[in-house]
Amino acid sequence: MESVKNIEKLLEKYLEAETTIAEENRLQEYFTQDEVPAHLEEYRPMFQYFEIAKQERFTKEVPLKPGRNKSYLQWASIAAVAVLLVGVFLKQPATPSLEEEYTAEELQSAQMALAIFSKNFNKGTDGIQYLKEFETTTNKFLNNE
């Protein structure tokens, strides 16, 4: 029978996932014995479960239909190739350029509208600079208190 100190060290290594298979087998043998110290008794059901789980076998028959799975994959690959071919051969018509779609007057009025928008937008962003400066000054006063 192994000493309790060796088993405690092995158990600590086991809980840290650092044991070898031979060490795990030693623990398995130790905890399947009739006599286990009281402070190690809590680990006994775990190792007993492992022993029982080794003997369990799946006995039901798994139905396999090899022909059905194979034909499904063949049809899926054919469909994928067809989708790729359709994507390659069907091209979207080229979109006309702005000069072809709009007149010169329409383009000029759009440019003026964008310039006015940009000018007003810049006025709004100038106000944000004042707010940032106000915030930093306020923070200086609040932090000094």
Condensed summary:
The chain has 145 residues and is mostly helical. It has helices at 4-15, 21-31, 44-55, 66-89, 98-101, 104-144.
Structure explained in plain terms:
The chain is mostly helical and 145 residues long. The chain is 72% helix and 0% strand. Among the domains are: 4-55, no CATH class; 103-144. Helix 1 (4-15) crosses helix 2. The mean pLDDT is 83.
Mean pLDDT level: 83
Query: What is the total tally of β strands?
Result: 0
What is the straight-line distance between the termini? 73 Å
Low-confidence runs: none
Rg, nearest Å: 39 Å
Which word captures the global form? flat
Percent of residues in helices comes to over 70%
Number of helices: 6
Class from secondary-structure proportions? mainly alpha
Strand content: under 5%
Task: Give helix and strand order, one letter per element, not per position.
Answer: HHHHHH
Major sheet summary line = none
